[in-house]
Fold this sequence. Notes:
Layout: H1 3-10, E1 14-18, H2 23-34, E2 38-42, H3 46-55, E3 62-64, H4 72-86, E4 91-94, H5 109-137, E5 140-145, H6 158-178, E6 183-190, H7 197-204, H8 214-217, H9 222-234, E7 239-242, H10 250-256, H11 258-266
Parallel strand pairs: 1-2, 1-4, 2-3, 4-5, 5-6, 6-7
Helix pairs in contact: 2-9, 4-5, 5-6, 10-11
InterPro entries: KR_dom (IPR057326), NAD(P)-bd_dom_sf (IPR036291), Sc_DH/Rdtase_CS (IPR020904), SDR_fam (IPR002347)
Family: Belongs to the short-chain dehydrogenases/reductases (SDR) family.
Keywords: Oxidoreductase
Amino acid sequence: MNNNKLHALFNDKLIWITGASSGIGEQLCYDLSKLGARLILSARRSDELERVKNACAQPDKHLILPLDMLQEADIIAAADKVNSQFGAVDYLFNNAGITQRSLINETETDIYRKVMELNYFAQVTLTRQVLPGMLARGEGHIVTTSSIAGLIGIPYRSAYCSSKHAIIGFMDSLRSEVHDKGLRVTTLCPGFVRTNIIETARREGTAQEKVEDTVIKNGMSVEAAIAQVLDAVANEKEQVVIAEGKEGMGPIIKRFFPSIIYKMVRKMALT
Ligand SMILES: NC(=O)c1ccc[n+]([C@@H]2O[C@H](COP(=O)([O-])OP(=O)(O)OC[C@H]3O[C@@H](n4cnc5c(N)ncnc54)[C@H](OP(=O)(O)O)[C@@H]3O)[C@@H](O)[C@H]2O)c1
């Protein structure tokens, strides 16, 4: 979709982006700001949110709302604030997330709980908080960053893959319930994108120090990823794989030739 059409769609729209302090969420802020959107930027680190806001094309149209999404009460309080101050948002980008790197055999249950808490329960909680306002207005668009790892289970990321599969199921159910009420639900399934995702996971204790991030370093640029994201959202796609080249073929191969994909993932390096 060309830039004029994107501008017409997103200009002055109220858009809440979680995970806005880094990576995919950060680039979303830059591109949506250029398109004239009013943004609410959430993540935990307020200094990083300020940095992103100030680097946006129209910082005066944006506000930061620091939030720890591992705390359910924080999510509810933040949503109450947004709902009472602005009413329903036009778009919610459920993008905050954390990865994990370790063998199942070496992964404690608390890691599974932490990854599931952020990548699944927090998204469910925030979505449920914005839903009544969108339903009352009869419009609104919920966009959630899952992953190709939400479509194909791969080694070394069992907690991450489980959480990203789970959120796809939730969003599929949500879409089926709200489509006829005017709401749209888009699930993003990116492949590897060059962001700080491994550093974040190391900081959070869900990836071991020794883990290499070669696949992420060789991933697509965040700018290219967001161009595909905005196109998918503007076209109201239900679910979209965000990838370049043959990486994007994985889900199709799994659907039609599942044994081939199971063989391929068995051979994946543990990085
Ligand atoms: N990069 C990839 O290859 C890739 C591929 C597929 C899907 N994804 C998904 O894309 C999304 C963004 O990831 P990214 O690659 O941009 O990674 P990133 O650079 O590490 O960004 C993660 C974001 O989530 C926020 N976050 C982490 N824990 C949080 C918490 N407890 N409460 C609130 N916010 C929290 C971080 O901010 P603070 O630390 O400031 O809180 C940061 O803004 C994630 O859902 C990820 O799973 C990434």
